[in-house]
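Private note to self, pasted from the team thread so I don't lose it. Backbone tokens:
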């Protein structure tokens, strides 16, 4: 079968201590994910909420690549080239009719400019040598301005990792260099006559005290038997320690949700505790993905499960993360005059509507 209701975290490259060589990192990744994927089934891309966008992008990109999909590919199996380091994942992708080859994200076995669409979801920020990974993705893709210059597609969706924002605060040399790079690329695309809608998935805030120490509210020990889910969790990410400002909690059978909410709300660093129905109404969340309670931290705090489950030894810069109310506001910029109805509330996903339907007619 080529489906499964639940599967382990996707991807086949993880960040590990920098003292290891590249070969050792690949081997460690391979062993970990070989064990993880051996007893799992492939979830077809149609099962994910990214499918409508992935399908539309794939339709305009005959040469396409997805890197490190594990058993959770997002691009169509038919016609997409997949690259991964896990033998079980590769075998199961092939068994479902996909073309899949061994290929670490830092050393892809493809020619320069080989693909019109390159997809690496939730992977780059997990890689130890992220600069090399990004360079490889750029090398094999004919993306952005290059595609506009050569193929003139009707729609391009270009995405970046949030690794820089996690590691470097606004105004630092690294953050400024990243923004300058984006400015150069966007200027080139603008000069080609494209309508550009620029936005972000979320903001980013420092989550430390005045001395730069992480400020964490650990939730697992507050309510006996409760299960704490942190959407940002990935124990192999060194740059945020699997800590964010949002958590949902599943209470044990028979627990009083009001008493549990009151107990959590007393913790320093907790900004908001909501019952599931309240959180779903306030934040437009799907009810089947939310526990009994939703917890949001203060702007300079993050939420964790238990100290022993979060390795902060890999933090080489003050902790920066997201998920709270303080990270809701993001830029939404369009490089053309817009025809808009009065009083409209904008969200980041409106970027598509603004670019496609709201640009004023010229002349």
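Design output:
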């Amino acid at each position: 079968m080529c489906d499964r209701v639940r599967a382990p975290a996707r991807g086949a490259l993880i960040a590990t201590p920098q003292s290891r060589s590249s070969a050792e990192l690949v081997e460690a990744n391979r062993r970990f994910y070989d064990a993880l994927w051996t007893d799992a089934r492939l979830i077809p891309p149609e099962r994910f909420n990214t499918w409508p966008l992935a399908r539309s992008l794939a339709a305009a990109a005959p040469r396409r690549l997805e890197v490190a999909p594990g058993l959770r590919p997002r691009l169509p199996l038919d016609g997409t080239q997949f690259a991964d380091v896990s033998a079980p994942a590769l075998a199961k992708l092939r068994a479902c009719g996909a073309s899949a080859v061994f290929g670490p994200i830092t050393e892809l076995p493809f020619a320069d400019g080989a693909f019109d669409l390159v997809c690496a979801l939730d992977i780059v920020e997990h890689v130890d040598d992220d600069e090399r990974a990004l360079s490889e993705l750029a090398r094999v893709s004919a993306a952005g301005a290059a595609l506009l210059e050569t193929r003139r597609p009707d729609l391009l969706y270009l995405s970046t990792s949030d690794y820089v924002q996690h590691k470097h605060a606004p105004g630092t040399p690294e953050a400024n260099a990243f923004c300058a790079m984006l400015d150069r690329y966007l200027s080139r695309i603008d000069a080609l006559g494209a309508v550009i809608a620029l936005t972000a998935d979320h903001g980013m805030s420092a989550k430390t005290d005045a001395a730069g120490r992480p400020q964490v509210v650990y939730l697992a020990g507050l309510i006996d038997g409760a299960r704490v889910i942190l959407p940002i969790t990935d124990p192999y990410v060194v740059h945020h320690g699997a800590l964010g400002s949002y958590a949902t909690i599943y209470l044990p059978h028979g627990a009083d949700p009001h008493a549990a909410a009151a107990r959590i709300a007393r913790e320093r660093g907790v900004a908001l505790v909501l019952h599931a129905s309240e959180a779903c109404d306030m934040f437009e969340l799907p009810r089947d993905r939310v526990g009994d309670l939703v917890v949001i931290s203060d702007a300079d705090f993050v939420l964790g499960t238990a100290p022993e489950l979060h390795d902060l030894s890999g933090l080489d810069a003050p902790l920066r993360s997201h998920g709270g109310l303080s990270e809701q506001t993001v830029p939404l910029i369009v490089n053309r005059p817009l025809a808009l109805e009065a009083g409209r509330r904008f969200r980041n996903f409106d970027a598509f509507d603004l670019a496609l339907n709201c640009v004023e007619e010229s002349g």
